[in-house]
């Protein structure tokens, strides 16, 4: 089976994304890093040809923070296709808007705690390679 996570050819892109995180991504990272939710998250983790904003390998959980651009038709279609690929690979995806992170952080964190608990207690399905 070939490697699907953190493909070498996308290393520079992932590094660029880590160095240029959006303000909402920085805010959320402050609250989920260092296992503050009881699970280790990685930022800008490569999954196939995509870079997930945040990823917890233990829970197979992807967290995405969507800015205004994600509401545009072309970007929304790309997000939908990307989600389908990740879901078929056995990953779970949780999306939050940048506005929610900026203005409803307590709700976002509570929703993430609940999601992590549900993911941790659910039986793990074997992932299909991307």
Number of extended strands: 4
Order of helices and strands: HHEEEHEHH
Query: What is the CATH fold-level name?
Result: Endonuclease, Chain A
Indicate the low-confidence ranges by residue numbers. Answer: none
Please give the order of strands in the largest beta sheet.
Answer: 1-2-3-4
* Proportion of beta-strand residues: 15-25%
Global Rg: 14 Å
Helix content: 40-55%
Total of domains: 1
Class per helix and strand makeup: alpha+beta
Gap between N and C termini: 10 Å
CATH architecture: 3-Layer(aba) Sandwich
Instruction: Spell out the CATH superfamily.
Output: VSR Endonuclease
At the first level of CATH, the class is Alpha Beta
Largest sheet: 4 strands, mixed
Question: Overview of this structure, please?
Answer:
The protein has a four-stranded mixed β-sheet with strand order 1-2-3-4, with helices on both faces. It is built from five helices and four strands, in the order H-H-E-E-E-H-E-H-H. The chain has helices at 11-19, 23-32, 73-88, 98-103, 105-121; strands at 42-47, 50-56, 61-66, 92-97. 22% of the residues are buried. Helices cover 45% and strands 19% of the residues. With 130 residues, it is an alpha+beta fold. The chain has a single domain, classed as VSR Endonuclease (Endonuclease, Chain A, 3-Layer(aba) Sandwich). The protein is globular and about 35 Å long.
